[in-house]
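The following block was generated as part of the benchmark described in Methods. Ligand: iron/sulfur cluster.
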Amino acid sequence: MERSKKIIFATHCLLNQNARAQTVAKCPGAVKEFLAFCLVNNYGIVPIDCPQLMFEPLRRKPQTKEYYDNLITRKVSREVAQKVIKQIKLYQKNKYRIEGVYGVEGSPTCGAVRTHIRNQQGKPISVKAPGIFFEELEKALRRQRLKVKIYDWDIQAKKRILKNV
Ligand code: SF4
């Protein structure tokens, strides 16, 4: 069988919404529209570890970016980013095309384009900025001079959003 040689990297919960914090799962399991998009384009999917589940319980409250802006989240995010970098290099070395790295719109850790912060009244609001994991991933990509496109998958809108860098 001929291979497509087209790879995308996907944050864990695009394939498993069970991993998400309480009340924020948008569907029961994998995100159907995201899977359909991958199937139509013959993308091979490389899952990215869920940074939150590496140090938080499965049952956890939804939080904003400030909550995760701490040493442990940064350390875990850097470790996960290193794994992603290693795999990107492996595929690129073998002449596969990296078609994108996909985050989850609005996540405090895995939002690539948009995340949530608290406003002065303490209310969560959506802002145009990456979450903690994507901040660390972007730094690592820049250090390694790797150029890949970064997207958010907007689960509600069922579409991808390109990050303009
Ligand atoms: S930390 Fe990332 S992968 Fe884990 S549930 Fe949140 S958005 Fe999904």
